[in-house]
Description:
Blueprint: E1 2-7, E2 10-13, E3 18-26, E4 30-39, E5 46-51, E6 57-59, E7 67-72, E8 77-82, E9 91-100, E10 107-111, E11 115-120
Parallel strand pairs: 2-11
Antiparallel strand pairs: 1-3, 3-8, 4-5, 4-9, 5-6, 7-8, 9-10, 9-11
Amino acid sequence: QVQLVESGGGVVQAGGSLRLSCAASGIIFSINAMGWYRQAPGKPRELVATITSGGGTNYADSVQGRFTISRDNAKNTVDLQMNSLKPEDTAVYYCNVNVVRSRIGGQYVYWGQGTQVTVSS
């Protein structure tokens, strides 16, 4: 099976920065799209940013210009650099990875355990 390990969450003052990292390990033939989602208390999980295997990116309007998603295909990692953080960015952030486990094919979706990001005013 595939496991995702997230790191980098914490508490930061408004205007500050954090960098989240997610590492995938296990039975992996290749990885397609990767991304970050978040869930605030009382709200549904929402997309933050995604990145394709070719490097194409997509961002939520609320984070455009402040967050940057990147990946290292050699290490099977995806990062989220978060700058100019706002209190409304406070949420649990989840890593998402779409994995092909063998040359036979078939895509499987995996989620990280979540990491708390708290932005104080």
